Amino acid sequence: xxxxxxxxxxxxxxxxxxxxxxVAVLLGLVLYNDGEKDxxxxxxxxxDFFTGMALCLLLWFRRRWPIQLAVLSAVITVFSEAGxxxxxxxxxxxxxxxxxxxxxxxxxxxxxxxxxxxxxREKNEPILTVIITTAILYVGAVGWSLYVRSRRQLLQTLRxxxxxxxxxxxxxxxxxxxxxxxxxxxEMHDVLGHRLSLLSVHAGALAYRPDASTEEVGxxxxxxxxxxxxxxxxxxxxxxxxxxxxxxxxxxxxxxxxVLVEGSRRAGVPVELELDAPGTMPDHVGRTAxxxxxxxxxxxxxxxxxxxxxITVKGAPGNxxxxxxxxxxxxxxxxxxQGQGLIGLTERAALVDGRLEHGRTPDGDFRxxxxxxxPS
Length: 376
Fold this sequence. Notes:
The structure is a single chain. The protein has helices spanning 11-35, 42-58, 66-76, 84-97, 100-121, 127-208, 214-243, 257-266, 283-303, 340-351; strands at 271-276, 309-316, 320-328, 355-360, 365-372. By secondary structure, it is an alpha+beta fold. It folds into 2 domains: 11-166, no CATH class; 257-376, Histidine kinase-like ATPase, C-terminal domain (Heat Shock Protein 90, 2-Layer Sandwich). The chain has a 5-stranded mixed sheet with strand order 1-2-3-5-4, covered by helices on one side. The longest helix is centred in the middle third of the chain and has 82 residues, at 127-208. One of its GO terms (cellular component) is membrane. This is histidine kinase.
């Protein structure tokens, strides 16, 4: 059954129903006047008129009881010509809103009604001519109704597809927004985590050196001020991406790696860097290597402040890039959980088809190692 049946009548439905009622009444009266010439009793002629007009009035309820009224009209048109057009409209209504088998069954009922009509009304024309003419009229009306039904189904299918496409597009947009937010959160963690770790180291040095000279305090304060200023600048750049959708996240490059290491050295962390990676490196690989080193230095500053860090970055086109950081491992409590930084690094490495591992070495040091693809 069509989903439009039973719903509240729209303005278009009111117009269509009004036209159908008017046409049924006018043509029904024409047929009734023509049928007055038939050799039938007066009481049957009066019954023809009143039942025919009743069928026309029932057209206003054809959307509520379409099949019931169509069957009733088929019975009444056995003797009524005034209700012939109304019966045809009832049949068309069923053909538009119901399956083909229901329509064919109703068409069979109407053909039987036509045969009985030809016998009851005693037409001057041959019975076969009356049956064939009326059958052609009904088949044509049903065919047109089936075309209307198929067209409505096609339009509804196109609307459903459009709605699904819009829903999928909205979901994809939300997913893209979530991925962008995750990327921004990762950038904020990488950028600000390292800067704030440097601030923590210098502030801790001042706290544990109450006997420091004025010059040393001034130098440490200047480093803290510069690091805080840079952290604020990095934060502004990241937040700026949120305000400008067309912008891109500020991304470091592999060439910035020595500057990153030098900043940690100025913070008092003894860092040893071995860099051997000649050739032109893809941006995404170099950026991932930078983030791995940055996260490793941040973890060293947090968990093993003042301890030496050894960094090795080696590779060549076609062989891949190997990144390794080692530092003395802190004595962690057994219940301490792994931070989100290492999880994020693992995801970063996987995104460029690389791999990352971390853990304690047999010597008791903490080791962070990654291999990244470097196509030739």
